[in-house]
Amino acid sequence: MQKQGSCSHFSKYKLESIGNLIKTNFTFCDNAKKLQCESDVEKWLCIECGFFGCSRNSNNQCSLKHNQQTNHPLSISNNSFAIWCYVCDNDLETIIEETDNKGQKEKIIKFLDSMKNLLFKKIKQNKPTQTIQQFQQVQQQQQQPETLNQDIKQSITQPLNYTPKQVFGLRNLGNTCFFNSVMQCLNATESLNQFYLDHKKFNFSSYNNNVDNEDDDDWTTVETNKQIKQQVRPKSSKLSINQIYQNFLLNSRKSKGLVDPADLFKSIQAVQGRFRSMAQQDASELLRCLLDALSTGEENTHIGRINKTKTNGKPKRTIVENIFGSYLCNYLECLDCGFVSRTFDFCLDYTVQIRKPKGLINQRFQEEYSEITSEELQDVIVPYLHNSILVQKNNNPPKIQQQKQCNLSVIDCLDAFTEYEELNQKNNYFKCEQCAKQGKKSVRALRKFFFYDLPQVATIILKRFQQKSAGRFEKVTEQVEIPETIYLEDYTILKGEPSQTIEEIQAQKFKYQLYGVVVHQGTMTGGHYVSYVKHKENNQDHWFYFSDSNFKEVSLKQALSNQAYILFYERV
């Protein structure tokens, strides 16, 4: 393999000759008739000969097999416009970040931009009067019996022939694709936008008197009683990060397709120093830092706490906490004496490993559901309990037999995250309070996580970057099937009224619908973040692909057939 950051395989190509090679209609793989290739998966165009084939994430992997047969080095995606070098085993945008040769970097950037523009123009030339999605729908309708055409026309969402005001690209400020991809998903979070877009009712411009300091307009961090309290303002600015975010949302809807997010990104840099470096960062860390900063900023403004309900433990006070916040119940059961411990910890997302469950069962439970007794909760701090009855599902939810395109699904990852795990000599002994009174230092135990007080927006982070031996981190590239709809009641401690039976409480349903996907392309040493986001227009759902300043409408299948990193589900 050639050294990273030193690619020169693009230099032999001329744009004129590449343009003459492009004969495809950008819809079907060149092997479609022979291999019955899928029409809605990402495809790659060979820059050497013009072959148009399915991606390596598809069933047939036509583009990858074409490279293995021909050794043609470069292909460009019709979806993300990324260019992959098979010899260097990397994409050109990552190579640009890694090379120290300024002259070579400029050449790659020029080639990359020229190829993107060329491919975009070719797509428009081949479909001057209709979008790619419209062409695909016409083809699908022609393959159906004539009697079904009317039903199909009614069920298919027609692509838009205009750009909605809430759809726009974001300028890359220098390795800020991680930030742009997250912002596109937050921009589509309707439950958050209903507060921030209503600037007359929710004005974040003024601070409380006990926070504002007119003599010092620099952002500061003050430590009091070992707790960090932040005045969330960018350096040399009297605007809170909340007002900057509110201005970003309001002004973006007046833009003409491209927005400069520099002010918002600078405000995040002021709050979190790790983002002051212009190196590529982790999108999930950015999301947590931004939500924490917005939540802290809300408490520092006159809007303050929208939820004033008193409770034990960490409450949900702010807009952000009420939308994204929930609790993880850590259940621990001593296998020696039977003592049970429960703790409830506040969280803004669910971070799960990419794996299938092992299927360990807790043998002491005879019933599928059981009430958590008041004796078990005697010394437990349970948020928002009040006079409610709590019911838990005792063992892992049963597997639903369904046809999967991948060996692993998000449901598998949730099952694995919430299954019983034995703590033993090989896996962290448990320090039981009761056994400690008898002189035992550590014992075997069962541990399980439950969700509690579910959020309006469930953010699921798939652990794509995992630590291996010797402290090294590796990217998990396994494809995970993404369901458009998930139900979380099987993973949740359910609340009910004292007058309700267990059967009535367990009948509750918590349905969530996917609306945002952050995808990391590339390797552990570098890569590129893109996002797929659902926007509602004219009471219909439309999915869009975003890569910094570039965006286009795509199908639901395209949005679901990627290596997802962060998933945004909204409760319906």
Structural overview:
Helix content is 27%, strand content 23%. The chain is of the alpha+beta class. The two termini are 49 Å apart. Strands 12, 17, 20, 22, 23, 24, 25 and 26 form an 8-stranded mixed β-sheet that branches. The longest helix is centred in the N-terminal third of the chain and has 25 residues, at 102-126.
How would you describe this structure in keywords?
572 residues; alpha+beta; disordered N terminus; 26 strands; Ubiquitin carboxyl-terminal hydrolase; 27% helix; 7-stranded mixed β-sheet; cysteine-type deubiquitinase activity; single chain; 8-stranded mixed β-sheet
Give a brief outline of the structure.
The strands form 6 sheets. Strands 12, 17, 20, 22, 23, 24, 25 and 26 form an 8-stranded mixed β-sheet that branches. Strands 10, 11, 13, 14, 15, 16 and 21 form a 7-stranded mixed β-sheet that branches.
> What fraction, in percent, of the residue positions are helical?
25-40%
Report the mean per-residue pLDDT as an integer.
Answer: 80
In terms of per-residue confidence, which ranges show pLDDT below 50 for 5 or more consecutive residues?
Answer: 1-5, 127-155, 207-236
Number of helices: 17
Q: Largest sheet at a glance?
A: 8 strands, mixed
Q: Total strand count, please?
A: 26
Computed Rg: 26 Å
Pfam family, one: zf-UBP
Keywords: Hydrolase, Metal-binding, Protease, Thiol protease, Ubl conjugation pathway, Zinc, Zinc-finger
Family: Belongs to the peptidase C19 family.
Enzyme class: hydrolase
